[in-house]
Amino acid sequence: MMKILLPVDCSSNSLKATRHVVNRFLENGAMEVHLLHVRQPFSQHVARFSSARSRAASHREAAEKALAPARELLMRFGVPHAEHVELGERAEAITRVAERLGVSEIVMGTARKNSLTRLLEGSVTDRVLEKAPAPVVIVTGELVSKLERFGIPAGGAAVLALLAFAVE
After folding, report:
1. What is the DSSP letter of 42?
2. Helix 90-101 and helix 124-131, axial crossing angle in degrees, nearest 10
3. What is the tens place of the pLDDT at every residue in 35-82?
4. Fewer CB within a 10 Å sphere, N or C end of the chain?
5. Pair type for strands 105-112 and 31-39
6. Cα-flanking dihedrals φ and ψ of residue 70, to 5°?
7. Cut 0.85: pTM above it
8. Is 32 exposed, middle or buried (0-12, 13-18, 19+ CB in 10 A)?
């Protein structure tokens, strides 16, 4: 039986990866899927002003929102799955869980970005590919914005727009 780790977030790209897994399940039902959502811990500055209980509730609520669309799709097609939520840096958590579960494969959705954008922003996908204990299947998703296609990350585009506005 093939064991697949499917990291998901709230993006259309992770839902596209989920559809890919469902299609593979329909071709060959010998599959077990592990949904994974990784939450970034709150910074120490934020954590100082909130209780452990409220931070945990916030993480649970966000994880539920991220897991729900993928869960619904898997359930609709009868794909057996388990759900996991981890705290930490995304790429490290994905590879750690893949190793712990002994998965056969990691299936990830990703936006189509150019090399310069990936270099400047860093990419969870690239870091998973470097460290993964199993083969990684990349399902390409939506194109990034026109500015990002030319190598200007979203934050940089906002700064440029503000500067252009200020000059006028």
Report:
1. P
2. 40
3. 999 998 888 777 778 888 888 888 899 999 999 999 999 999 999 999
4. C
5. unpaired
6. -65, -45
7. no
8. middle
Would you state the structure tokens that stand for residue 85, as one six-digit string? Answer: 């939520």
What single-letter amino acid sits at 64? E
| Predicted confidence (pLDDT) per residue in 85-118, tens digit | 999 999 999 999 999 999 999 999 988 665 555 5
Q: Where are the domains of the chain?
A: 2-167
Q: Which residues are CB-contacts of 13 (< 8 A; sequence separation ≥ 6)? A: 109, 110, 111, 139, 140, 141, 142
Q: Give first-to-last CA distance, the chain, whole Å.
A: 62
**Residue 23 predicted with pLDDT over 90:** yes
Picking from 83, 44, 49, the residue whose alpha carbon sits closest to that of residue 63 is 83
The CATH number fitting domain 2-167, selected from 3.40.50.970, 3.40.50.620, 3.40.50.980, 3.40.47.10: 3.40.50.620
